[in-house]
């Protein structure tokens, strides 16, 4: 099999990978739930390539993201739900419907001022149509939280859910009360560790993360931004360890945890020194 610019080749490759017995064992083991995290990850990789202005990388990452669409479509086809062609048809129908000012007949053009209002009206119609297709029991109760988009990243969605609930008073008034809740969740994780219950540990870890987002909200810190800053800090300090060991003619594998931890603390010390100096200068 050879590479191709034709999307049909990619669909063929995925079908081959998912063919029982002769296909790839790893690909055959996957399902929608196990592939979903990779789909989200690839979307972030696309955004990162755009942020860096790296078009070579963007080309590769868009291909990886396209593979995710083909993967999900293939699994759906195996369950006789829909195929890749149905995905393409659905999005082309949607785009044509949402742009009547572009695709309308000569007598159906919309003035530029009416484009946005038409877009919102059509989206509302589509939303109503999707709701009508759902089982009756799903439409009986309209939750206050229903407007929070399900596709948001977990940290952002936790923040949005909490903000929405707070509009009706379901909230703490003191960040210290949230901190108490965080300690409670940590204690529950410790109890789950004692029981060695992996399912419970995953659930309790989620509860702790949700509580941490709540604390971030109460102290006016964006959790996504805060975590990105911490990720960068971790990378910076870990790189310090690598450079320090390299200067000694050693590798990470040749070093003990205690030695790496000491270098980590040294990196922290170097980062704090400028801050302390600035604070001292400010007091003068």
TrEMBL record:
Q: Which domain of life is it from?
A: Bacteria
Tell me the CDD domains matching this sequence: NTP-PPase_MazG_Cterm (cd11529), NTP-PPase_MazG_Nterm (cd11528)
Q: Where is this region: Disordered?
A: 265-284
Query: Known InterPro entries for this protein?
Result: MazG-like_dom, NTP-PPase_MazG-like_C, NTP-PPase_MazG-like_N, NTP_PyrPHydrolase_MazG
What residue stretches are annotated with the NTP pyrophosphohydrolase MazG-like domain? 30-103, 175-237
Q: Show the PANTHER family listed in the entry.
A: NUCLEOSIDE TRIPHOSPHATE PYROPHOSPHOHYDROLASE
The name of this protein is Nucleoside triphosphate pyrophosphohydrolase
Name of encoding gene: mazG
């Amino acid at each position: 099999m050879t590479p191709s610019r034709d999307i049909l080749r990619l669909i063929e490759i995925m079908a081959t990978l998912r063919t029982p017995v002769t296909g790839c064992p790893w690909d055959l083991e996957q399902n929608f739930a196990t592939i979903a995290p990779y789909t989200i990850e690839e979307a972030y990789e696309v955004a990162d390539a755009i942020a860096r202005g790296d078009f070579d990388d963007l080309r590769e990452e868009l291909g990886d993201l396209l593979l995710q669409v083909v993967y999900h479509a293939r699994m759906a086809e195996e369950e006789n739900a829909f195929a890749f062609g149905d995905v393409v048809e659905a999005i082309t129908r949607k785009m044509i419907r949402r742009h009547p000012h572009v695709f309308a007949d000569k007598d159906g053009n919309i003035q530029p001022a009416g484009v946005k209002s038409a877009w919102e009206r059509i989206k509302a119609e589509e939303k109503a149509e999707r709701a009508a297709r759902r089982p009756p029991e799903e439409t009986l109760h309209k939750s206050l939280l229903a407007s929070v988009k399900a596709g948001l990243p977990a940290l952002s969605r936790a923040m949005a859910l909490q903000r929405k609930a707070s509009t009706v008073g379901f909230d703490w008034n003191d960040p210290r009360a949230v901190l108490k809740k965080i300690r409670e969740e940590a204690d529950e994780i410790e109890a789950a560790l004692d029981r060695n219950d992996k399912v419970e540990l995953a659930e309790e870890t989620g509860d702790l993360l949700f509580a941490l987002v709540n604390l971030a909200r109460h102290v006016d810190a964006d959790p996504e931004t805060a975590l990105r800053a911490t990720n960068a800090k971790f990378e910076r300090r870990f790189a310090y360890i690598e450079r320090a060991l390299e200067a000694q003619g050693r590798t990470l594998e040749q070093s003990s945890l205690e030695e790496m931890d000491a270098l980590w603390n040294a990196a922290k010390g170097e980062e704090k020194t400028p801050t302390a100096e600035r604070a001292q200068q400010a007091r003068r």
